[in-house]
Amino acid sequence: MLNQLIAKTLPIVPKAIVRQVSNRYIAGETIQEAVTTMRRLNSAGAVGTIDVLGEFVDSRTQAEQETQMSSNVLEAIHTNQIQSGLSVKLTSLGLDIDDEFCYNNVRSLVAKAQGIKRFVRLDMENSPYTTKTINIYRRLHSEGLTNTGVVIQAYMRRSEDDIRGLAKEGASVRLCKGIYIEPETIAFRGREEVQENYKRLLRLLFDQDMYVGIATHDDVLLDFAQEEIAKRGVAKNRYEFQMLLGVREQKRDAIIKDGHKTRIYVPFGHDWYGYSVRRLKENPEVAGHIFKAMFTGGR
Ligand SMILES: Cc1cc2nc3c(=O)[nH]c(=O)nc-3n(C[C@H](O)[C@H](O)[C@H](O)COP(=O)(O)OP(=O)(O)OC[C@H]3O[C@@H](n4cnc5c(N)ncnc54)[C@H](O)[C@@H]3O)c2cc1C
Predict the structure, then answer these.
(1) What is the pTM of this model?
(2) Is 113 in the pocket of ligand 1 (CB under 6 A)?
(3) 3-class secondary structure for 191-255?
(4) Residue range 27-271, CATH number
(5) How much distance in Å is there from the Cα of 276 to the middle of ligand 1?
(6) Which of 51, 118, 121, 123 is catalytic?
(7) Mind listing the pLDDT tens digit for each residue in 239-286?
(8) How is the chain split into domains, by residue range?
């Protein structure tokens, strides 16, 4: 009860407390900190994807700055020879401003990544952007920029159709539950409904022999995925597990130890607040930590 109450009142928790509690989910504020985190993960047997925190940008200048930051990340990945790709949110590259402007920004990043043999994942945001994001993916692909892929959210009712469409292009898909709040008319809302759809979609992705990033920390789904992989004899180069930095690290290590390729999503940057609040709301234990931090001044 108390935990639920505090989770609901997160918006009024002082930012310094949110920052202190969410430190484990964020590599830091600089590229160098993201590189250091990624080196540590690489040494522990994981690969990664780096994300510059930021979304829903409404000025061209800011979208250009975000594009430049992601471009700098690609350079750092290359220079430091770390095993990592890049993840981007299209609203941080200008999707809310102008489609063509956003396309040119993301295109420049994917082209640069192609030159250094890296992959760019287009994160999936809330439902007003689903079709636009898939269309941008398709346009990049049709221009020969095949080092990019999309994200499918299991809570969206449209996802099965989206996968069937994307199968024709042999798309690389990250499958996650979905993190935004969507209306029931277009999204499954119940925990079990979402789990069931996740399983259905994962089977479909394997049926279609699509490369799949299994992005979840949910034991029910992790067990299901491992059983399907074993039962079907899915080749190691057709899937990977994906987890967020700082979440269920013991489970992550066990998956790596079992010999599955595992990618960790490593966010960094100044715009850490929105991301942190979403993560904290997901973590059932978070409220207790926040409550404690409020009374200890974050020490
Ligand atoms: C690599 C990756 C990329 C993603 N990309 C996207 C995207 O592009 N678009 C999108 O909408 N969503 C994205 N998500 C988020 C995703 O949609 C879910 O919201 C999130 O993963 C939680 O769902 P779950 O499957 O882990 O299951 P849950 O049932 O939420 O979590 C399972 C268990 O994991 C633990 N756990 C989960 N979250 C936390 C946490 N923050 N702290 C501590 N423990 C936790 C808890 O023990 C929980 O019981 C991504 C997730 C991952 C892992």
Answers:
(1) 0.93
(2) no
(3) HHHHHHHHHHHHHHHHHCCCCEEEECCCHHHHHHHHHHHHHHCCCHHHEEEEEECCCCHHHHHHH
(4) 3.20.20.220
(5) 12
(6) 123
(7) 999 999 999 999 999 999 999 999 999 999 988 887 788 777 777 666
(8) 27-271
